[in-house]
Design brief:
Length: about 70
């Protein structure tokens, strides 16, 4: 009889199945991690961008104040 081979073959099949699921779970997790690196979870707000541009001298004080008022509304 093929199914009555003894030696706990059922346990090896269970362990092999668990390892199969774990392996593919790790592969999928790694692919998601690698492909999502370019995305920022905390996007820079428009006000932060305006502050950076003001600090770099790309905006005058009046332009910055107008942007700040516009973004607050």
């Amino acid at each position: 009889m093929m199914w009555d081979s003894g030696a706990g073959m059922g346990w090896w099949m269970l362990i092999g199945s668990v390892w199969f699921v774990v392996f593919w779970g790790v592969v999928i997790w790694a692919v998601v991690k690698v492909t999502s690196r370019g995305e920022s979870r905390d996007p820079t707000s428009a006000l932060d961008i305006a502050r950076q541009r003001y600090a770099l001298g790309e905006l005058t004080r009046e332009e910055f104040e107008q942007l700040r008022k516009d973004l607050a509304a």
